[in-house]
């Protein structure tokens, strides 16, 4: 096969630039369009090859690009690019660029190139790069091309930047005699060719003083720069710590700023003047909105969190929340200290007008902080957080239900057996891959105490073990039933017990029952966390939870007594008389009178006798002694007359939420507004109602869920100045979060869906049999 170099060189265009086209000799429109289209195609192909070669020279591509260079050939008639060629940098031969790999194989590997050596030359033997361009060794045609970005810089043939490059022909005696060599073989293998090309490129750069500089950054006006940096500041602060301020000084990020025409910025600038400006702006907005409200509620969460950060927020009657401050804690906190922090927060907002704070909702303390504050300030309603109360049900079930103890013990035994026995573990992974498409990882277990016992109060809890075993139930069963593992169960008595347990469908039914009950409580807690119910919703929430637990007992044939007893005990620990009072005063729960009247009446029939007494006691406590009897008289009138049906229906009007599909109240604020406007005859009772109805029953402000990194700022702070800066960072981020009503957790959830992660809906495998009482 003949070398393609001579053939290609014979077809190369001349080096003379094309003559300018006069207006009279202009080609037809369709011809020009076709030429331009071909030029664009050739240019795009050339740029693509240059990009591939640049990456290859850096060690991220094929070896032959160290010796082949893309060449853009121009038309002698129009001066436009018409084709792309490949030039061998060793012998200046030119080839078609349609298949670089085949060109490399035929020209370099087969020995056609006379200068492709079998071993690299020493650096000392590389000839210096002179100001004269290298010569073509094959005769009298010049090659028009743009030089690659960083290799073999050439002199331009014309003054204009758009003119092609020219290579004058060398004398014939410059070409060495042709000879064939073996393929280059280096000690590191084929990958060394990229490193060798990079070495040669570095030598050429050192010998050549001319290096192509990157294009200048686009020029932006001062106003554009200020706007861009302001938006960048908002994004960094709004991230809640998930974006590190130190990353602003990362070299790659600084390169990005330079490419888009922005000046470099420092973390000192962000944590200094920019932080102060954003903090002052958020603080003024928060204080103005608090002053405009007639009263408010303090919410405090984080007293039981592990990050040592307590957040204090302000709930306003219009349904919005504002961030107030963060308290940094170390170690356990006494009830008296919590009481002091909460009262200081109230005093800093109200001054001497402490009556404006009508209540507190916070984590439930072991001491009497909330009750003490309520006792000294009788106009206040201080509530324990319902989210914490509902979550505590899982601990109650674990302590009081025998089925929890047996299932937990058996699952830990099974998980440890699978994880620690290499033969069973390999079979388990094999069947995982066969059944579910993945076959790695161990069954999750809580950490062990020093004595080797499982720590029941640690994280991750036993629920994670239940999920893993249920999620891989079929693989576990197949691994145990595998004939190749029979010897394991014969020789080991404990292994035999595990085998019998896995074969027993009663074990799987009990496991599913426990898993289902825990998930029921978790789903209720998650819904409460998202909905942030008001005080009047507490009784319905717990009643709905009771009904779900009863359905669970019926489905899995579990005795209702112990389960209902645990739920009732937790309900009483969290109950507050304000639940019952807000429930009967909230127009949302009014029902049509069945005695013939058209009015909608409050649901007193849903209360127990003791709860009715709680309503009377609470109302008389929230007003002065002179107004107590008036308030009770108005309460009796409210109980018998209720609300006009038109207004009641307007308050209770619902619409379907397009994002969740659930029915939502069209105007939640109308429940309070109807007391301030339409029910104006209830002067004393109305003042109590508007203060009770808006109170939240959960302490979370809507921004903590989802792994926010506020604690990272707090832990990194040192000294008074550092803590002050951390306070400002948290305040700005939380203020923005509460204003948008979103959270980092929602963003992570979207990322999880994008990456194909679980959405939290765990399906029970079909092979797990359930003895359903309804069947």
Automatic annotation (TrEMBL):
<feature type="region of interest" description="Disordered">
    <location>
        <begin position="98"/>
        <end position="186"/>
    </location>
</feature>
<feature type="compositionally biased region" description="Basic residues">
    <location>
        <begin position="135"/>
        <end position="157"/>
    </location>
</feature>
<dbReference type="InterPro" id="IPR058269">
    <property type="entry name" value="DUF7963"/>
</dbReference>
<feature type="compositionally biased region" description="Pro residues">
    <location>
        <begin position="166"/>
        <end position="177"/>
    </location>
</feature>
<feature type="domain" description="DUF7963">
    <location>
        <begin position="34"/>
        <end position="116"/>
    </location>
</feature>
<feature type="compositionally biased region" description="Low complexity">
    <location>
        <begin position="1"/>
        <end position="14"/>
    </location>
</feature>
<dbReference type="InterPro" id="IPR012337">
    <property type="entry name" value="RNaseH-like_sf"/>
</dbReference>
<feature type="region of interest" description="Disordered">
    <location>
        <begin position="1"/>
        <end position="29"/>
    </location>
</feature>
<dbReference type="Pfam" id="PF25908">
    <property type="entry name" value="DUF7963"/>
</dbReference>
<protein>
    <recommendedName>
        <fullName>DUF7963 domain-containing protein</fullName>
    </recommendedName>
</protein>
């Amino acid at each position: 096969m003949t070398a393609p170099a001579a053939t290609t060189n014979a077809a190369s265009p001349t080096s003379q630039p094309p003559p300018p086209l006069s207006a009279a000799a202009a080609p037809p429109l369709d011809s020009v369009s076709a030429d331009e289209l071909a030029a664009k195609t050739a240019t795009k192909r050339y740029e693509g090859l240059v990009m591939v070669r640049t990456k290859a020279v850096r060690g991220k591509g094929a070896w032959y690009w160290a010796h082949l260079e893309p060449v853009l050939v121009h038309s002698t008639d129009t001066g436009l690019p018409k084709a792309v060629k490949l030039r061998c940098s060793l012998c200046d031969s030119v080839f078609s660029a349609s298949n670089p790999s085949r060109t490399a194989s035929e020209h370099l590997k087969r020995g056609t190139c006379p200068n492709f050596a079998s071993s690299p030359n020493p650096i000392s033997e590389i000839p210096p790069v002179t100001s004269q361009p290298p010569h073509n060794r094959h005769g009298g045609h010049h090659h028009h091309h743009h030089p690659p970005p960083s290799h073999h810089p050439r002199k331009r043939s014309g003054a204009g930047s758009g003119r092609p490059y020219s290579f004058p022909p060398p004398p014939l005696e410059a070409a060495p005699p042709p000879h064939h060599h073996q393929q280059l073989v280096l000690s590191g293998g084929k990958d060394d060719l990229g490193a060798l090309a990079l070495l040669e490129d570095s030598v050429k750069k050192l010998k050549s003083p001319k290096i192509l500089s990157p294009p200048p950054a686009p020029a932006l006006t001062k106003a554009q720069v200020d706007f861009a940096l302001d938006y960048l500041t908002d994004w960094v602060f709004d991230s809640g710590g998930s974006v590190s301020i130190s990353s602003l000084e990362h070299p790659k990020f600084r390169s990005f700023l330079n490419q888009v025409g922005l000046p470099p910025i420092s973390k000192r600038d962000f944590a200094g003047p920019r932080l102060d400006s954003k903090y002052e702006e958020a603080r003024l907005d928060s204080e103005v909105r608090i002053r405009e409200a007639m009263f408010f509620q303090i919410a405090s969460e984080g007293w039981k969190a592990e990050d040592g950060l307590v957040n204090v927020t302000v709930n306003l009657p219009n349904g919005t929340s504002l961030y107030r401050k963060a308290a940094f804690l170390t170690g356990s906190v006494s009830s008296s200290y919590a009481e002091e922090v909460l009262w200081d927060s109230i005093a800093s907002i109200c001054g001497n007008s402490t009556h404006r704070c009508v209540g507190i909702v916070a984590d439930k303390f072991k001491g009497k902080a909330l009750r003490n504050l309520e006792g000294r300030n009788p106009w206040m309603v201080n509530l324990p957080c319902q989210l914490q109360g509902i979550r505590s049900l899982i601990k109650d079930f674990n302590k009081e239900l025998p089925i929890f103890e047996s299932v937990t013990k058996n699952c830990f035994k099974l998980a440890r057996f699978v994880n620690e026995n290499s033969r069973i573990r390999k079979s388990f992974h094999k069947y995982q891959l066969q059944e579910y498409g993945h076959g790695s990882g161990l069954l999750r277990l809580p950490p062990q105490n020093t004595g080797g016992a499982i720590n029941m109060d640690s994280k991750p809890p036993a629920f994670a073990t239940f999920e893993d075993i249920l999620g891989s139930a079929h693989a576990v069963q197949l691994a145990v039933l595998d004939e190749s593992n029979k010897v394991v169960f014969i020789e080991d008595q404990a292994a035999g017990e595990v085998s019998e347990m896995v074969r027993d469908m009663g074990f799987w039914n009990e496991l599913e029952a426990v898993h289902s009950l825990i998930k029921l409580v978790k789903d209720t807690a998650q819904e409460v966390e998202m909905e942030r119910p008001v005080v009047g919703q507490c009784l319905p929430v717990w009643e709905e939870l009771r009904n779900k637990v009863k359905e669970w007992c019926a489905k899995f044939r579990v005795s209702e007594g112990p389960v209902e007893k645990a739920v009732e005990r937790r309900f009483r620990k969290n109950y507050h008389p304000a639940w019952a009072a807000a429930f009967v005063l909230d127009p949302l729960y009014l029902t049509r009178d069945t005695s013939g009247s058209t009015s909608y009446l409050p649901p007193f029939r849903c209360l127990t006798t003791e709860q009715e007494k709680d309503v009377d006691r609470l109302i008389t406590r929230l007003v002065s002694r002179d107004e107590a009897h008036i308030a009770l008289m108005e309460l009796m009138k409210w109980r018998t007359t209720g609300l006009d049906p038109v207004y009641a229906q307007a308050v209770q009007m619902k619409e379907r939420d397009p994002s969740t599909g659930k029915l939502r109240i069209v105007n939640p604020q109308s429940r309070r507004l109807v007391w301030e406007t339409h029910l104006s005859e209830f002067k004393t009772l109305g003042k109590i109602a508007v203060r009770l109805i808006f109170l939240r029953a959960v302490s979370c402000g809507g921004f903590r869920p989802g792994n926010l990194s506020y604690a990272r700022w707090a832990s990194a702070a040192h000294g008074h100045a550092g803590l002050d800066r951390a306070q400002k960072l948290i305040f700005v981020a939380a203020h923005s979060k509460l204003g948008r009503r979103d959270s980092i957790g929602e963003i992570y959830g979207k990322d999880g869906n994008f990456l194909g992660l679980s959405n939290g809906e765990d399906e029970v495998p079909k092979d797990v049999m359930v003895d359903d009482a309804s069947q």
